[in-house]
Amino acid sequence: MSLNGSHDSIAPGSLLQDSDFAHLERAAHLADSSAGLTQPHPNSACILVNEQSQVVAEAYQHAQGTASAEVQAVSQAGPAAGGTTAYLNLETGDSHGDMSSVIALVKGGVSRVVIGLLHPLPHLRGQAVRTLKAAGVCVDLLQPALAAQGQAAQQCLQACLKVNEALLHRAATGRPLSLLKYAMTADGKIACSSGHSSWVSCPDSRKLVFEARARSDAIIVGGNTVRRDNPRLTTRREGGHAPVRIVMSRTLDLPQDANLWDVSSAPTIVMTQRGARKEFQESLRAKGVEVVQFDFLTPEAVAAYCQERGFLQVLWECGGTLAAPAIAAGVIHKALAFIAPKLIGGVRAPSPVGELGNVEMTQAINLVDSSWQVVGPDVLLTGYLPSSGGLLALQERLAAGAARQDTLESSHASSSHAAAAAAAAPPLGQNGAAPRGAHANGAAPTRRWWRQCDSNVVEFYKSWDLYGALSNFSAHPISMPSRPVSISGALPSAPARQWPSVEHFYQAQKFAGVESAQALDIIEEIAQAASPEEAARIGRRNERLQPSLMRTDWPTAKLAVMHAGLKAKFTQHDGPRALLLSTASLGLSGRALDLVEASPHDFFWGRGVDGSGFNHLGMLLMSVREELLQAEQRQKADAVTPAQNGIISSLYEPAAKH
């Protein structure tokens, strides 16, 4: 059994019972528990139920790079996990390249697994199902029960789809779920003729907007909104996830002292056209604002960049001037329209959507799966645009794509030349998303410098994406000392402690060895951070605000620190090590694959948006890979062969292709 599994058909199990639907729906609701507290990620939960129909454990994944729901639930249940049924709203796959979740279920003695939704990402879809069955675990899927078991099954499926609608859009469209939010009066105005707009909707409606912000990776506005409203675009809550604020402006005709330039509470990205107001760009960067330049700034270019950035959900809070081209480009997937029982009139009062060029009512865009919700005196209308089609349509599109892929692979299975080409080819779309150039709106592919230069490259970024276990944000704790790693890479002779991830260790090392109680407090805060993302925020914030607390040799030591952390991870964890070593022989003519961190904004650790980055993380991983290969060769020379027995060991065999 390979790491990726085979593409044999996933046969349905037995018909599900009403109790199965109830537990699956409960798992779907439980999976949403971290929404707004952490950055959006695939939402998964696991509920273990014994033969007496008693829930013995339940858990959900808190954030990217934290322990999976399955691992938590089995650990929580202990010996009581034996013989239970595990209910998963989403097929497990929290870190591609690591099968810890499946291993936990098998080792815990779980006898049956019921899954509400096959994983939408193609490199994970069906993998856990096949592996569990190979291990002798009974697996039942919700999908085959739909036709035979009616309304209860349909309601359960809707719950499973809803909690991961952002992931579905990413997989089916190659873009993050884009929500267009606006508040308007009953006569369709978002502001008075003077431009005044505070407040169109009621306080209860605004609370829902703040919640939508917290559930998003980013909030997008145009230059007009910044000039007219000077917004903060925060979630209005203490703690929790702070989405990135994105400002789109081709000319950078923006105020010098806008609220969005204060990045102490949330980061800001200004997106503009290349060469616009260079001095103003530098002043923004000096304040900590990130500036991204495009050859031509369009909604599609911004959506493509957000996908490259790994965003799952983006909230567009722009005015009609930007909303119209975003809709026309097929970027917007869903509308959230708050309608207030007010009339303000005014021929020149702005409306939520600008000119779309429609001259007949038959050209109007129809929202599908629309629903109405009363919010105080307001009404909230939600509905999906044709670029989405709705959750069931997305699910059908993904299933059809998987069937076509299986047929294609089956037709080529007998050809050794085709098999070799498949093994050497780059993955289908960066980060496990749909292939470039295959979008419904017909958008041209985004430039991919690394891929165009060498098909012997594999990219990685988010832990759930292709080759995700290579990420320093993956959920793989390491045992390393708190004292500083030297610039030579030598480890201090100090007691080791457990760090939840490589990122936790790396961020803490920025302040290691500094003789300051404050520095020690920062290190401990990082060590206790609930997720790698939170650890990164703490480390970066203190690096920016309290540079005097950082170790003075950090600029020269950070490469050695990251190398030490990566080496610990890939020597202490079987799954990531097997994945890394598998890249040593999957390339053209058996040549080792080049590893590239696909971060579009990090030009030091990643490739950067235009491929001109240093890719130091990828380079370090290739160095660690070589060290591991040399260690294996020494073992063979000493006639030491690691024992690998049973189904658990077989889960770690290198993948046949990528």
TrEMBL record:
EC assignment: 1.1.1.193
CDD domains: NADAR
Pathway: Cofactor biosynthesis; riboflavin biosynthesis; 5-amino-6-(D-ribitylamino)uracil from GTP: step 3/4
InterPro entries: CMP_dCMP_dom, Cytidine_deaminase-like, DHFR-like_dom_sf, Eubact_RibD, NADAR, RibD_C, RibDG_C, Riboflavin_Biosynth_HTPR
Stretch list, region Disordered: 405-445
Pfam families named in the record: NADAR, RibD_C
Coiled-coil region(s): none
Domain of life: Eukaryota
CMP/dCMP-type deaminase domain boundaries: 18-128
Keywords tagged on the record: Multifunctional enzyme, NADP, Oxidoreductase
Biased composition (Low complexity): 410-445
First-tier enzyme category under EC: oxidoreductase
PANTHER family with a match to the protein in the record: 2,5-DIAMINO-6-RIBOSYLAMINO-4(3H)-PYRIMIDINONE 5'-PHOSPHATE REDUCTASE, DIHYDROFOLATE REDUCTASE FAMILY PROTEIN (AFU_ORTHOLOGUE AFUA_8G06820)
Protein name: 5-amino-6-(5-phosphoribosylamino)uracil reductase
Organism: Coccomyxa viridis
